[in-house]
Amino acid sequence: MSPEFFPQAFRYDPVADSYTCPAGQTLAYEGREKRGTATRYRYRAKKSACQSCPLKAQCCPHNRQGRSIVHTEDSPAVAAFKAKMRTEAAQAIYKQRSGVAEFLNAWIKAKIGLRQFRLRGLAKVGLETLWACLTYNIQQWIRLVWRPQLPIRTTALA
């Protein structure tokens, strides 16, 4: 596919809810599909329009159904989160995460061996995660509370 026919080169018409390809063909709305928090909108040109197009070899040489484009939109909550995370304040806070959370994740992977879940289902995976976190917390408590206390040094001023 030639760079002139990448999806960014197609123009969107919000009134007609369609895209126009660089060759002037219209890609009409075909349908949508929800995937997690995102919605994917598919637009497709008519098969006959693509077959008779002189630029077919550059646009879609192996496609027999007609050129299609998928436009993905995040849910409003995800879009708001992404906008917030682009701010400098949020990025400064996020940089602190490595010192707080990443060590714990690495420790659980290395010491407990939890690299993938052994069970299926959200409830069982939640319990497996809970056990791993509980193990980490108990070991930290043992390390901090039960270790021998060092005697306090006093220096005589004489």
Furnish the topology, listing elements before pairings.
Elements: E1 11-13, E2 18-20, E3 26-35, E4 38-45, H1 47-51, H2 56-59, E5 68-74, H3 76-85, H4 88-95, H5 97-112, H6 122-145
Antiparallel strand pairs: 1-2, 2-3, 3-4, 4-5
Walk me through what this model shows.
The chain is of the alpha+beta class. The chain folds into two domains: 3-81, no CATH class; 96-145, no CATH class. Helix content is 42%, strand content 20%. It is built from six helices and five strands; from the N terminus they run E-E-E-E-H-H-E-H-H-H-H. It has a five-stranded antiparallel beta sheet with strand order 1-2-3-4-5. Strand 2 (18-20) and strand 3 form a beta hairpin. 6% of the residues are buried. The model has no long low-confidence stretch (mean pLDDT 85).
